[in-house]
Design a protein that fits this description.
By secondary structure, this protein is mainly alpha-helical. It is about 70% helix and about 0% strand. Helix 1 packs antiparallel against helix 5, helix 2 crosses helix 3 and helix 2 packs parallel to helix 5. The longest helix has 28 residues. The mean pLDDT is about 90.
């Protein structure tokens, strides 16, 4: 945690030293794009854990697959975890990726600073997604958190509730959820699943998108039988 904080402070120092009024729109854009990119990345991790691999998959199984799938069974278990349990491992994993951005000459301003802020925003969004996810399940939240949820700056309980309706096959992004509607309408996760299966990646038996597809096939078969009966 201290290493993550130190790297964050290094990038913040560069922003203070190298930031200018002319660069401000680019810095704000970098922060916002990173926030969206981080949500999309963690949405992909969530989607993948819900549909591929198993709890026994080396490294990823216990750390990601088990947590996400068990969460559908016990959605409020996440509320029993403390800050370190929720975010510590994410901070640790992010350090090798954050380090190159901290080493950029961001204090000189220009594109190195823009890139450093984009990288930090992307990684920070991913690091703290579990905390935001917990707030979406907490029965009580601090006033500031409730404000951020109401304004949709972070994931709201109402928005996230869509994912917890069976078959759990929509709204995978859980930091702010801004892209969920578009991704679901375009069936991005379904198309990705088709791609992975075509590439030979074994789909889990309890894949949430697999079960959704089975229901679609059953509905289509029922529809065809009804037409044939007429």
């Amino acid at each position: 945690m201290l290493t993550f904080l130190a790297l964050t402070c290094t990038i913040a120092y560069g922003a203070v030293q190298g930031g200018t009024l002319a660069l401000a729109p680019w810095l704000l854009a970098a922060l916002m794009l990173g926030y969206v990119a981080g949500d999309l990345f963690t949405g992909f991790i969530h989607y993948f854990a819900d549909n591929f691999g198993s709890e026994t998959t080396p490294v990823l199984g216990p750390a990601f697959v088990y947590r996400f799938r068990q969460h559908h069974v016990e959605p409020r278990h996440i509320c029993t975890l403390n800050f370190r349990e929720l975010n510590g491992s994410h901070m640790l994993v992010s350090i090798p990726f954050l380090l190159p951005f901290a080493l950029l000459p961001s204090a000189e301003g220009g594109w190195p600073l823009v890139l450093a802020l984009f990288g930090w925003s992307t990684l920070a969004s991913g690091v703290f997604t579990a905390q935001v996810h917990r707030w979406a399940h907490d029965l009580e939240q601090p006033a500031l958190v409730r404000f951020l949820q109401r304004t949709r700056l972070i994931l709201s309980p109402e928005h996230h509730a869509r994912h917890h309706r069976r078959p759990y096959d929509v709204h995978f992004c859980i930091t702010n959820g801004w892209l969920n509607g578009l991704l679901d309408r375009l069936r991005v996760w379904d198309r990705l699943t088709d791609l992975f299966v075509w590439m030979g990646v074994p789909q889990a038996d309890d894949s949430v998108l697999g079960s959704a597809r089975r229901r679609q096939r059953e509905r289509a078969a029922f529809h065809d039988e009804a037409i044939a009966a007429e």
